[in-house]
Amino acid sequence: MASCEKGVIAAEQAVQHAGKAREYADEAYGSAERSLQQAQSADVMADHAREYAEEEEQAVEMMQNWVQQAQSATDLAFSLRQAADAAQESGQRNATGACYDLNDRIQLLEEVNRADLNSAYH
Amino acid sequence: MTDWFWSVVQRSNALQDFRQSLRGLWNDSAAHEINQHYLDPHRQDNVLMQQMLSQLIDALTDAEGKLDAAEQEGMRAERLSQQVKEYLGYAEHDRSEADRDHGRFLTFNAEAQEELPIISDLIETAKQYCS
To answer: Which of A6, A35, A77 comes nearest B129 by C-beta?
Structure first.
């Protein structure tokens, strides 16, 4: 085989390898492009997630605020309940006192009446 | 609660009406003494108790409304949390795809790089034979 023919064969092989290298490079480029697009999409999704997370944080803060206010109202209700109980107990003592007082007076009247009747008989 | 309170107020009013109706019939010293010592203070206690109970009902209603509002916000936070989870899932999926394509890029790029010295050698060989 002439020496130049070997050179031509080597050149043809170089062209074939260059074709393969081109195919690999094209695939690499396509993959890099898709990777970039997916990464950008992931970034957008992460931004949405961050926005929702911020809203969630605000909702949690508002919920805590409402719970604190409800707690204050409940504390006030508890104090009022204690005051109402105290007034009710005082009222009950006064009502009981009135009943005992009346009862004592009625018994006294009965005794006076009985004594009057006895003296009338004798 | 309000029905119960209404009943308490009605019974208290009935007692005070009854006392009022007795005022003309029972007006001796015993009546003065018992009213002064027991029944008038009882009426004051009753007024105070009713005021406290009325405010208590208001406070409990207020607390109930605020707990409802807290529950609403809690449900909103729960929904937003689900959306955060959902979008984080999308982001994770996209990142995973990006990783996979990046891996493919590295593989193909390495294979293209491997071809370059072979091509250079073949070009050199061709030059040697044909020069």
So the answer is: A6
Q: Smallest Cα–Cα separation from A73: which of B53, B69, B56?
A: B56
Q: What does the block give as tokens for B70?
A: 């807290």
For residue A104, what is the nearest residue in chain B, using CA coordinates? B30
Query: What's this model's pTM, rounded to 2 decimal places?
Result: 0.75
Residues A65 and B110 sit within 8 Å (Cβ to Cβ): no
**C-alpha–C-alpha distance, residues B79 and A52, integer Å:** 9
Q: What are phi and psi of B24, to 5 degrees?
A: -80, -25
Residue A65, H or E segment:
helix A3-121
Q: What is the pLDDT of residues A12-39, one digit of tens each?
A: 999 999 999 999 999 999 999 999 999 9
Question: How far, rounded to the nearest angstrom, does the alpha carbon of residue B44 sit from its chain's CA centroid?
Answer: 41
* CB contacts, 8 Å: A100 with chain B: none
Q: pLDDT digits over B58-111, tens only? A: 999 999 999 999 999 999 999 999 999 999 999 999 999 999 999 999 999 999
Distances (CA, A) of A43 to A50, B75, B85, B89, B99: 10, 27, 15, 12, 13
